[in-house]
């Protein structure tokens, strides 16, 4: 099967989307500081606490 060349528009879209993904990954890093600390009432914090309790119960 032959390899087809992308048209200029498709090459641009491919590059742009790759750069957008890279930018989003860099932008979502949690930085140290008071504003980025996870709240105690957050559902993710509750889930982590429950998982810690269950894993401790299984170890005991």
TrEMBL record:
Biased composition (Basic residues): 1-15
Protein name: Spore protein
Region (Disordered), start-end ranges: 1-20
Organism: Pedobacter cryoconitis
């Amino acid at each position: 099967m032959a390899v087809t060349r992308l048209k200029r528009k498709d090459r641009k879209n491919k590059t742009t989307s790759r750069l957008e993904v890279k930018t989003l990954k860099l932008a979502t890093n949690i930085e140290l500081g008071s504003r980025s600390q996870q709240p105690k009432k957050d559902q993710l914090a509750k889930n982590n606490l429950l998982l810690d309790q269950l894993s401790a119960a299984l170890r005991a």
